[in-house]
Design the sequence.
């Protein structure tokens, strides 16, 4: 292992002087007199024109902002060294857990610096792997990413999806598994749809074609379910289901493993869904509505032994597994297989080896247990430590399963699991040029503003001193029932090896403790999320992990909203703020692409006067105020982000730059040919990580040493 100096140098120059080394001149963004009336309150929106992502004026503003930002970043003296070290440690082989489909085994592998992971197949376990699909051949710069990969039950066909430039728009293609040749099939205008094979074709859903020039910003409506026959044109696809009375609703089709039932999940938000099923073994059988309302979440696990197994949080905020008869499907007659556990959230169920393998989450880390199909507990799966399990792949009749395990200082390891004997053995373990034994992960529970105990993971060197001078990176999300569990990120190692502390707070709004925890951070409870994060920062400061001079905060998407809100409410706590692809305009978010689906978490400015006032009170864009001591801010977004459109970050940056007159930089980094984050090539990930860490070290007055 190469020797590295693992200590950071605290520069004699204080942080404020460091950020004053460069005099910044921000582009002047034109202001208009645009204003909207919300229940009698006039709200100015002077940068509304930045919502037009295809206009020449917006393009000129983006170009000018990037020139300022990259001009600043290029002058950071240690930026090249940061890039070199990140590239060095990033260059290690890694692979996914294998999964079985169509009689073959498949897995992905990345040799180290490949832009996209390559898909391999094996005729059997232990057989020589061969490439079935290499996404790196689809574009020279790696900006075409694979988003779906599904093999037909008979193993004849592979249907796969791609995304171009990071957009949520998907295109589907079909390949012959034996020959590796592509058919002529080319399906477009697909978002958030799987590939559900049935015979020689598959079910999927798509939206109507958007207006030219508004592909990345217009609302996506009129979702429909189709059946595509392999070898035919998209315009020949058979319409299976639509609801013209509800153009805002979306549909996600899936098929049980035995291809007996088509399942359609009906969604109008990110929480709660209706559920329809259709018996595919009978001709002209109608769709049966199992659930008509949107009050709870339901998803079908599979169909086995005359029963349809369904996970739900109906009457079970921590989730439970139920089963209904396949002869007369009726949710009112469901029997409970795995009852709600008061201390652990049921996160998923897989059939394998004739048994149920259930994933649970306790205090934001994973636990796995094995049950008989009737719900009788058999044993727990022994895991290496506190961490996260991913890709638990099993088949009903196979005794062998695979899963990955990871944690903050535990790179993703693939385990082969003997279901009957309850034995896990390492299948693949990566090797990284880093001494993980010198670091420790602790979990603390701190009181929030209302005394609710909030969990937080803290990662640091074992010999760290609690002296208030440790550079600390605080990350949070807090929304949409999404749970933050221990995970490994190779770029984070450069922070840790330079004496940095990494902290991740499990805020309300997430799913760490079930639906009640989620609801405690939604709509009129959203302020709880911001308070939880602010109190996480205060805990780290009070316990001397760090101080405001050395504390950075980061979050993406809903987490970008979080960062925007907290630096308006408590800017004095942070030295650096890194809001990524954030929802910054809480009054208009629902007017773009699929933003309306977030209303279950946020509410909208059109719901009521009370809801408008609540949103207006914390909206990051609308609460930027003169005189606040804002930290150094580096906003990140991308030109192809059609989930949280970049107009959020554009308007936020223009407003913050024109309002804040202090010494700290306020920059926006706008990536090209990239989107919300998924599928971003390795080269772009390394460049972005380089800039985030360089900006943070620089504005803390810290010079990394190697």
Sequence:
């Amino acid at each position: 292992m190469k020797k590295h100096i693992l200590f950071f140098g605290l520069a004699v120059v204080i942080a404020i002087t460091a950020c004053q080394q460069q005099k910044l001149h921000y582009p002047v963004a034109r202001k208009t007199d645009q204003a909207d009336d919300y229940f009698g309150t006039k709200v100015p929106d002077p940068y509304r024109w930045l919502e037009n992502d295809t206009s020449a004026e917006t393009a000129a503003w983006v170009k000018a902002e990037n020139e300022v930002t990259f001009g600043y970043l290029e002058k950071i003296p240690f930026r090249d060294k940061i890039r070199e070290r990140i590239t060095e440690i990033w260059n290690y082989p890694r692979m996914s857990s294998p999964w079985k489909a169509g009689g073959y085994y498949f897995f992905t592998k990345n040799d180290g610096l490949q832009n996209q992971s390559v898909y391999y197949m094996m005729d059997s376990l232990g057989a020589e792997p061969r490439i079935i699909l290499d996404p790196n051949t689809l574009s020279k710069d790696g900006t075409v990413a694979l988003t779906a990969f599904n093999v037909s039950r008979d193993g004849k066909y592979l249907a796969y999806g791609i995304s171009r430039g990071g957009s949520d728009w998907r295109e589907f293609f079909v390949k012959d598994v034996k020959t590796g040749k592509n058919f002529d099939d080319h399906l477009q205008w697909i978002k958030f749809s799987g590939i559900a094979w049935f015979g020689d074709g598959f079910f999927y859903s798509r939206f109507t074609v958007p207006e030219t020039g508004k592909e990345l910003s217009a609302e996506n409506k009129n979702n429909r379910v189709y059946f595509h026959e392999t070898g035919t044109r998209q315009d020949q696809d058979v319409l299976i289901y639509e609801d013209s009375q509800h153009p805002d609703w979306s549909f996600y089709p899936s098929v049980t493993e035995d291809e007996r039932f088509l399942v359609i999940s009906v969604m109008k938000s990110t929480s709660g869904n209706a559920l329809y099923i259709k018996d595919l073994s009978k001709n002209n059988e109608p769709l049966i509505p199992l659930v008509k309302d949107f009050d709870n979440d339901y998803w079908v696990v599979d169909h086995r032994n005359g029963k349809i197994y369904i996970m739900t949080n109906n009457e079970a905020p921590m989730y439970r597994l139920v089963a209904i008869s396949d002869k007369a499907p009726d949710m009112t007659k469901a029997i409970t297989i795995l009852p709600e556990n008061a201390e652990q959230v049921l996160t998923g169920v897989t059939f394998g080896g004739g048994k149920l393998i259930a994933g649970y989450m306790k205090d934001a880390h994973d636990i796995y247990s094995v049950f008989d199909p009737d719900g009788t507990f058999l044993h727990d799966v022994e895991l290496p430590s506190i961490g996260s399990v991913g890709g638990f792949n099993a088949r009903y009749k196979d005794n062998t399963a695979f899963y990955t395990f990871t944690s903050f200082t535990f790179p993703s390891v693939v385990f082969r699991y003997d279901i009957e004997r309850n034995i896990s053995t390492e299948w693949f373990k990566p090797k990284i040029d880093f001494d993980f034994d010198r670091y420790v992960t602790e979990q603390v529970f701190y009181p929030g503003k209302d005394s609710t105990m909030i969990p937080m993971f803290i990662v640091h060197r074992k010999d760290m001193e609690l002296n208030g001078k440790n550079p600390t990176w605080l990350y949070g999300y807090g929304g949409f029932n999404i749970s933050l569990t221990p995970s490994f990120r190779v770029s984070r190692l450069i922070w840790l090896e330079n004496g940095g502390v990494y902290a991740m707070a499990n805020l309300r709004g997430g799913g760490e403790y079930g639906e009640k925890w989620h609801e405690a951070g939604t709509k009129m409870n959203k302020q709880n999320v911001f308070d939880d994060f602010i109190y996480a920062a205060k805990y780290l400061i009070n316990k001397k992990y760090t101080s405001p001079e050395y504390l950075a905060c980061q979050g993406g998407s809903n987490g970008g909203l979080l960062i925007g809100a907290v630096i308006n409410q408590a800017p004095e706590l942070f030295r650096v703020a890194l809001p990524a692809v954030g929802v910054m305009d809480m009054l208009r978010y629902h007017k773009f692409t699929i933003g309306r689906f977030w209303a279950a978490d946020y509410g909208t400015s059109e719901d009521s006067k009370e809801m408008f006032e609540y949103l207006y009170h914390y909206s990051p864009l609308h609460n930027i105020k003169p005189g606040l001591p804002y930290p150094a801010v580096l906003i990140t977004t991308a030109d192809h982000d059609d989930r949280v459109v970049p107009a959020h970050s554009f308007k936020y940056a223009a407003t913050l730059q024109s309002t804040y007159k202090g010494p700290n930089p306020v920059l926006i980094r706008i990536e090209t040919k990239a989107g919300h984050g998924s599928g971003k090539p390795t080269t772009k990930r390394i460049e972005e990580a380089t800039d985030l860490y360089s900006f943070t070290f620089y504005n803390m007055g810290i010079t990394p040493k190697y």
In short: Residues 56-74 form the longest helix (19 residues). The longest strand covers residues 182-190.
